[in-house]
Amino acid sequence: xxxxxxxxxxxxxxxxxxxxxxxxxxxxxxxxxxxxYFLAGRSLTFPxxxxxxxxxxxxxxxxxxxxxxxxxxxxxxxxxxxxxxVALVAMAxxxxxxxxxxxxxxxxxxLEIRFDSTTQIICNLIFLIAYMTILLPxxxxxxxxxxxxxxxxxxxxxxxxxxxLLWLSVWVxxxxxxxxxxxxxxxxxxxxDMLNGIGLLVGGFLITFLGLKLIGGDAGFLGGLKTLxxxxxxxxxxxxxPSDPVPFWNIFTGVLIINIFYWCTNQQxxxxxxxxxxxxxxxxxxxxxxxxxxxxxxxxxxPGIIAYYVFVVQRGQDVKSVLAYGTLVREVLxxxxxxxxxxxxxxxxxxxxxxxxxxxxxxFSLGIYKRLWKPQASEIEVVRSGKYFGCLIAVISMVVxxxxxxxxxxxxYLQTMNGIYNIPICAVVIVGLxxxxxxxxxxxxxxxxxxxxxxxxxxxxxxxxTRVFSGQWHFFGVVFVLLVAIMxxxxxxxPRPTPWVHVDSGEVDLHPWKYVVPCGIALLVLVVLIxxxxxDFSVLSESVNVVATPxxxxxxVPLQ
Length: 560
Hints:
By secondary structure, this protein is mainly α. Helix content is 74%, strand content 0%. Residues 543-559 have low confidence and may be disordered.
């Protein structure tokens, strides 16, 4: 009983400490203008940008899901962390300078500048529908489930009814996250992300250290590393075989494209970079995120491998992959640190939720309310519309989230549904920036047609897609190439009368960081070296007949 009370008190203390520090740091911010509320007054510096990017990306589907995949398949699932660095380098060198040159607050605004207002509205509606019906409810649901798994909430709270506990957890997370996003704007969201990001790194590394120490015994964590390398060397292979969640060759098709979309054109993520005080700070923040992502496998993959060795190899226990991380946490974490880890985990969940909610408000206010509803609205009215809309969406997401209980393969569902819209948007943004003659009709066809094609493929004909394209990832890659080809055909056959000229809005200082190119190259070299160091290509020649099992059906493949 004493341990439970200590856990609750320490959890409230750490969570409250982040809230108080965030309030003190942001209480004087401008929250009445569009730039102040949605873009933090374009004042974010690189540590805040990096911390916010990192924690917006990380949530329970990463902590639980990626470690669950590592429990099942080993080191090869680090692809989601390591390949993300390639996308981040592309963001720093190519996308961000063009975004800031346009002075935009949302991706749809860029498409309006490049194509026309109808393209902007289509993209806006796609983002809003996806965030409202997919992203926000699933963040809350997976967050509540992850908390229950990792912290054993029934014992901690004394609530044994799973449904009651789920509803309570969802509403607590939702209300706190909504407070950050709606009351404090992007600045408070980003600052709290930075603080929680520090705690997440400390807590994540601590679990890995204690897990290795458990294996190593008297030899310590270094002994644990040696034990893993000698006892289960096949689990430390960076190359995914045919039966792994991400086979090696799939990296170069759908996986790479999804990472490009996520880190370079996903409103939820890039809104932090659009709020950079200048291009140099934005580039430093993005590249620092890339460096931190290279450390991701240490706390997002290695604990899953440790759990496999401890519970399967050593003890012969039957542990489901989705419960592997939570089981390891309860095994190695001292009771007096449980409250701190709970606060860190809730911070990660809140970050993903309040970031998505803030982006939803931004998309609605600037793209729908001011564009279609009330073009003459004042800045105060635009900000107020975002807050009202955010309250509505927050309540809807908190009501819908518990209803997802009982769904099979909830993570696979999230992954599939996100692929429906991210591939078309990514294709349109890239072609729009690179091709000066592509007309607006091509962008509209690619957006609408791409969504329809992918939706039919993954929802109506999934078996056929798997058989023809050898998996969903290759299908995404093929559709991406098809959409690009269609848009380039229109640029050749029905070009714009005059080439598009990218005009500098003058909103942001566009002087680049002088070390951006060498640092970007260094990160790419590190990606190659990491893969090479752990590579065993012999798995690619293995002929594997994959048979669906209950365990494999529960394997999680996080998006990033």
